[in-house]
Specification:
By secondary structure, this protein is of the alpha/beta class. Helix content is 39%, strand content 19%. It binds pantoate (PAF).
Length: 282
């Protein structure tokens, strides 16, 4: 595996490879969720590039950019074990020569960013789309792999690819959970023991909604109330029901419903997100 920290060498190395290329964009601190993307990419492509880049332009003021976990040595070993061809881990100055305000950015439309995570994180998805577009341009990968846990991000990236005719296939990969159903996230590292216990109520609320829906309850207000009871003690930022194909809000759940939650756990003030599809397609 080649470890590359600059664009010139990345381009030279990519020229040498034969066959298809899969890209797994990450911010590092790799966990089993990332590894599931990497494994899928390795199984579907002749070559895989994993990028590890804590992208400053997708963090807002007061967010956790400085404390975001960085563990390149461990990430390198994990990628090596999975058969990754190139680990691209650039410095910020390699990716951006100017401040965010002076960069040409990709800004998804208001309708898709003024809701859910985009509402409390203004500019976040501009930063995500801009770095992802750069990675698509730099690697010219055939396929790129993203986790369903960041469902709004996935929706927005698929839209960007359609709208801007990127010649790349986006592969969505299922959420990976701990045995007690906590969705894997690099930010789980921040959780204290009591936070982690409370955080479990996010997935508990989602799975309970799914059960109630399967028992015949489709009224969103009733389903939200059931979830809020389970999530007492958490600072719930949103719990929303959207159509998975449009991300339009719903008042009655149906077979296309995706339920999304963002909540903060009190002790470490960690913001967690999770989601569930109410209907598993056959
Ligand atoms: O999901 C992430 O880790 C990041 O948002 C991504 C896609 C790597 C862009 O920085």
């Amino acid at each position: 595996m080649k470890i590359i920290d600059n664009i010139k060498e990345l381009k030279e190395e990519l020229k040498k490879i034969d066959g298809t290329l899969g890209l797994v964009p990450t911010m590092g601190a790799l966990h089993n969720g990332h590894l599931s993307l990497i494994k899928k990419a390795v199984s579907e492509n002749d070559n895989v590039v994993v990028s590890v880049f804590v992208n400053p332009i997708q963090f807002g003021i007061g967010e956790d950019l400085d404390k975001y976990p960085r563990q390149l040595q461990k990430d390198t070993e994990l990628c090596q074990n999975e058969g990754v061809k190139i680990l691209f881990a650039p410095m910020v100055s390699e990716m951006y020569q100017e401040d965010k305000k002076n960069l040409t950015l990709i800004c998804p439309p208001y309708e898709v960013v003024d809701k859910l995570c985009g509402k409390s994180r203004p500019g976040h998805f501009d930063g995500v789309c801009s770095v992802v577009a750069k990675l698509f341009n730099l690697t010219k990968a055939n396929k790129a792999y993203f986790g369903q846990k960041d469902a709004q991000q996935l929706f927005i990236i698929k839209k960007m690819v359609r709208d801007l005719n990127f010649d790349i296939e986006i592969v969505a990969c299922p959420i990976v959970r701990e045995t007690d159903n906590l969705a894997l996230s690099s930010r789980n590292q921040y959780l204290t023991q009591s936070d982690r216990k409370l955080a479990l109520n996010i997935s508990k609320a989602l799975f309970n909604i799914k059960k109630l829906f399967n028992d015949g309850i489709d009224d969103v207000r009733a389903l939200v109330d059931s979830a809020l009871k389970i999530m007492e003690g958490l600072d719930v930022e949103y719990i929303e029901f959207v159509d998975k194909n449009t991300f339009n809000f719903q008042t009655a759940a149906d077979k296309n419903t995706l339920v999304l939650i963002a909540a903060r756990v009190p002790e470490s003030n960690t913001r967690l997100i999770d989601n569930i599809l109410l209907w598993d397609a056959m």
